[in-house]
TrEMBL record:
UniProt keyword terms in alphabetical order: Hydrolase, Membrane, Transmembrane, Transmembrane helix
Origin species: Pleodorina starrii
One GO BP annotation of this record: proteolysis
Residue ranges of every copy of the BD-FAE-like domain listed in the record: 118-264
PROSITE patterns noted in UniProt: CARBOXYLESTERASE_B_1
Protein name: protein-S-isoprenylcysteine alpha-carbonyl methylesterase
Catalyzed reactions: [protein]-C-terminal S-[(2E,6E)-farnesyl]-L-cysteine methyl ester + H2O = [protein]-C-terminal S-[(2E,6E)-farnesyl]-L-cysteine + methanol + H(+)
Transmembrane segments: 48-67, 73-100
Length: 515
């Protein structure tokens, strides 16, 4: 039955009936209840002609909207094809480097789950007995097309500057949702922190870098680990545990840090895709918090790789051979080579994990489908930074956020807001650099392929090689110096890099860039 709304007039609750023949409207003590739809004036009905002529206009409007969407997609695809063709000389050279360079070791297993692999880029002159600063790079790809090879160009520049680079792969949607991606990223970071010493890396000199969606995952993982360490019990998105104090710096490049603003900015079909990627089970975060208490943050305090195991050791024999072939330091077999941990928890030496009670639910409850809802606030680095408990921000390393003001994919305001939130929460060193005229891909593709000076490479090298100095110092002083970095510098101390693609093609690619 359709619910009815009512107007209640006069005094309610009176039970005195009116006398016979008396006008009931004359006694205000008697409640008069009338249907509000009948009490009001009737709605003017549309004329027959209006109804007849309305539907053709609605059909035309719907067709026009569909045509507009199709034309927009065609325009984006054409721009993307032109963009790829213009940069094809550089892409071809990087493909050859990635597959045939002796300094690249591909497909190292860091965990037992799908796509838990990483690539290592050794310095060209790597020697046994020498330790090198380490950069962990998390690639972008809109959470759907990310791949570890996308970081080959930046990794090549960094390795040539004397840095050992680990490019992590992780599950993409629909193979996994945002929580699965966070688990992969946390597992990979923990693996590097505990085992990179076997490949000549310095576990006390690790810099975390993330771009676009990779910036979101890396930034959120870092903030969640700081929150978990401060609270002393497991937090959603911080499994397995590792200590944020082990990092020298975090560099976020064109990162998707404000998810709510990003969803509003993109809208349309991409908003629907984001709703599914950034979805959580109802009550998932509350269940982790309620079941916590056996905290694990304190178990991940050691930074130096002296035996805190990490998962994914299968293929270590091939890794040793590949590292030796690359001229790099051969890993010392301190942990059983060829063994892969059965679970991430076992592989991480007892580090913090989700509570056992979640894994020991009755079979029938596990089989029940769970309702998922978009969780932009729970999975947003900006909101996580604003909710940091006292003392958590002090555990964070130095933070540098770089974003181009011409970014059409991820608004630059998100980086500025995250920087402000971290400073408000008490982070020791946070800087945000907004670069005029740079697009979403300029730092990663057009600029390094063009050659000459490279802002991103210089900045990351400055953060990785300069102990005791805040990231971004080279932005203020004209670049990372050649003396400190171990390579030659150009004018004003900036490095000058070789070109992979003619400059005019890179400039044209920037004009047609759809990002």
């Amino acid at each position: 039955m359709e619910p009815r709304s009512y107007l209640i007039c006069a005094e309610a609750g009176s039970t005195n009936p009116t006398s016979a023949g008396e006008d009931p409207y004359s006694d205000l003590r008697v409640p008069i209840i009338a249907n509000s739809r009948d009490a009001g004036s009737p709605k003017p009905s549309r004329s027959y002609c209006a109804r007849v002529w309305a539907w053709p206009f609605n059909v035309v409007a719907a067709i026009g909207h569909a045509i507009g969407v199709v034309l927009k997609l065609i325009f984006i695809v054409v721009c993307l094809m032109l963009y790829s063709l213009l940069l094809m000389p550089g892409f071809l050279r990087m493909i050859v480097y990635y597959f045939f360079s002796k300094n690249v070791v591909r497909g190292i297993v860091y965990g037992p789950k799908p796509r838990q692999r990483l690539d290592l880029y050794f310095p060209p002159d790597a020697r046994n007995g020498v330790t090198y600063p380490v950069v962990i790079y998390i690639t972008g790809g809109a959470w759907t097309i990310g791949y570890k090879a996308w970081g080959a160009l930046l990794a090549r520049r960094l390795s040539e500057g004397g840095v050992l680079v680990a490019c992590l792969d992780y599950r993409n949607f629909p193979q996994g949702d945002a929580l699965d991606m966070l688990e992969d990223v946390n597992t990979g970071i923990s693996w590097v922190l505990s085992r990179i010493h076997r490949f000549g890396g310095d576990p006390d000199g690790v810099t975390l870098v993330g771009q676009s969606a990779g910036g979101h995952l890396a930034g959120l993982a870092l903030i969640k680990q700081a929150e978990q360490a401060a609270r002393g019990y497991p937090c959603l998105g911080a499994t397995p545990a590792w200590s944020p104090a082990c990092l020298r710096a975090f560099v976020g490049v064109s990162g998707a840090f404000d998810l709510e603003a990003l969803a509003q900015h993109r809208g349309g079909h991409f908003r629907g895709l984001l709703d599914r990627i950034l979805a959580l089970d109802d009550g998932g975060e509350e269940a982790v918090a309620a079941a916590g208490g056996g905290g694990g943050a304190s178990e991940a305090e050691e930074c130096s790789g002296g035996g805190k195991a990490a998962g994914g050791g299968s293929g270590d024999g091939q890794i040793a051979a590949a590292a030796a072939a690359a001229g790099g330091p051969a890993p010392q077999p301190q942990i059983g080579d060829g063994a892969v941990a059965a679970t991430p928890a076992a592989s991480l030496g007892g580090q913090a994990r989700l509570p056992e009670r979640r894994r020991r639910q009755p079979r029938q409850s596990r089989q029940q489908p769970r309702q998922k809802r978009p969780a932009y606030e729970s999975l947003s680095p900006l909101q996580a930074a604003r909710r940091l408990p006292p003392g958590a921000a002090e555990l964070l390393p130095r933070v540098l956020l770089i974003h181009g003001t011409a970014d059409k994919t991820v608004p630059a305001e998100g980086s500025a807001r995250l920087s402000e939130a971290l400073q408000t929460s008490g982070a020791p060193c946070v800087r945000c650099c907004l670069v005029p005229g740079k697009t979403h891909t300029a730092f990663l593709l057009e600029d390094p392929m063009r050659g000459g000076t490279d802002l991103l490479s210089d900045t990351v090298l400055g953060a990785a090689l300069r102990e005791g100095r805040g990231p971004g110092a080279d932005l203020e002083e004209g670049g990372a110096g050649g003396a400190d970095g171990g390579v030659g510098g150009g004018d004003g101390g900036r490095r000058v890099y070789g070109s992979l693609c003619p400059a005019f093609l890179c400039n044209m690619a920037g004009w047609v860039c759809p990002f």
